[in-house]
Specification:
Number of helices: 14
Mean pLDDT: 90
Low-confidence stretches: none
Strand order of the largest sheet: 1-2-6-5-4-3-7-8-9
Strand content: 5-15%
Radius of gyration: 27 Å
Largest sheet: 9 strands, mixed
Order of helices and strands: HHHEEEHEHEHEHEHEHEHHHHHEE
């Protein structure tokens, strides 16, 4: 019998506190199939959910798997397993900021959520949110605009995505290397009680939480208080005191959340707290930039039709990094006088250009 399936069945019989899940994962008889009641409805429902997950290319990540998010192991009630549509690799190794807020919001809230998510994402940080309409959806769109990793945490089964109007957004998240995840099995409807429960996953994945727009006693405040309990920094976008969508965020500020005046407030804190991540991110970006430069050089290298053999040789040498006449002269297979004449003629033709630093570039 499948290890993940055995875990899924046995973990349903305990309260999924951090302590209980850890104890279960360490039991020597964990994978003893004789203790699994294969005739129970619980077993049959779980098998059906697993089968549907695998038919649809959905990953199953359980608490006992190495791919399980390390940050979720630290919260008081970790999910026993996750259904993951998209890139499961982004569950670990990335710093996330959670962004949440009102479903029914205003233009200001949408604009702020998109802008904050995009600016944070441009610094290599991922965005986690709940995939709901309003602030959540705007946050995911901002992350996509910045080409940043983004995770949408649903309060239903993956075959019952809510709201349905965001199905195209969920597809776009997956297509762009993100993930849509849930702890709920296939077939689970988006019940009201599921959403406060899923909020702990959003805050658990995050190193900081931003609340953009929230009315008094909204679900976003539940997420914020869970984040505070988990020791995560909470930021709130302040608003007019006569606007009901500011009541929750202003209350959070009164209770100790940091007023968010710029997305860089969050970025600067995270750079200070997890500097190693940003060093690795900078190295990755430099590598990507170098690869892009190489691609561009290759493109130029391929567009040499109509050039003489000597001109092609000069272009190849410049692309390789030898850009001054002296450096080019060291590499050519012909004489210096011919080189001088050819460089001049190639400038006239618009093939190359000599800059003020006396280096040649390919046009």
């Amino acid at each position: 019998m499948d290890r993940q399936l055995i875990w899924a069945i046995k973990s349903q019989s305990i309260s999924n506190t951090r302590k209980k899940l850890k104890e279960l994962s360490e039991r020597e008889d964990l994978f003893d199939v004789s203790s699994v009641d294969t005739q129970s409805e619980e077993y049959k429902r779980t098998v059906r959910s697993f089968e549907k997950a695998r038919r649809t290319g959905t990953h199953i990540v359980t608490y006992i798997d190495s791919e399980y998010p390390a940050s979720l192991r630290m919260i008081s009630r970790p999910p026993a397993l996750l259904y993951v549509r998209g890139n499961k690799e982004i569950l670990n190794g990335i710093v996330y900021v959670g962004i949440v807020g009102a479903r029914e919001t205003d233009d200001y809230g949408i604009r702020m959520a998109e802008s904050i998510a995009s600016e944070i994402g441009e610094n290599g940080i991922g965005i986690a949110s709940g995939g709901a309409r309003g602030i959540d959806a705007a946050s995911h769109r901002g992350a996509l605009r910045a080409k940043a990793p983004t995770i949408a945490v649903l309060g239903s089964g993956l075959d019952r995505p809510y709201p349905e109007e965001n199905i195209p957004l969920f597809k776009k998240i997956v297509e762009n290397g993100g993930a849509v995840i849930t702890e709920y099995p296939f077939g689970m409807e988006p019940l009201p009680n599921n959403f406060p429960r899923r909020n702990r996953i959003i805050s658990g994945l995050s190193s900081a939480l931003v609340v953009v727009r929230a009315a008094y006693r909204s679900g976003s405040l539940i997420t914020a208080h869970q984040a505070m309990e988990q020791g995560i920094s909470v930021y709130a976008v302040p608003g007019n005191i006569d606007n009901k969508l500011s009541a929750g965020t202003n209350e959070l500020i009164r209770d100790g959340a940091t007023p968010l005046l710029s997305a860089m407030d969050v970025v600067d804190e995270l750079i200070e707290r997890v500097p190693d991540f940003f060093v690795m991110e900078m190295d990755k970006r430099e590598k990507e930039a170098e690869e892009l430069r190489t691609e561009k050089k290759t493109e130029k290298k391929l567009n040499l039709e109509g050039l003489s053999e000597y001109e092609k040789e000069i272009v190849e040498i410049i692309i390789s990094g030898a850009q001054t006449q002296n450096l080019i002269e060291e590499k050519i297979s012909f004489g210096a006088e011919r080189l001088t004449a050819l460089l001049g003629m190639m400038e006239i033709k618009g093939i190359i250009k000599k800059g003020p630093d006396k280096k040649y570039i390919i046009l």
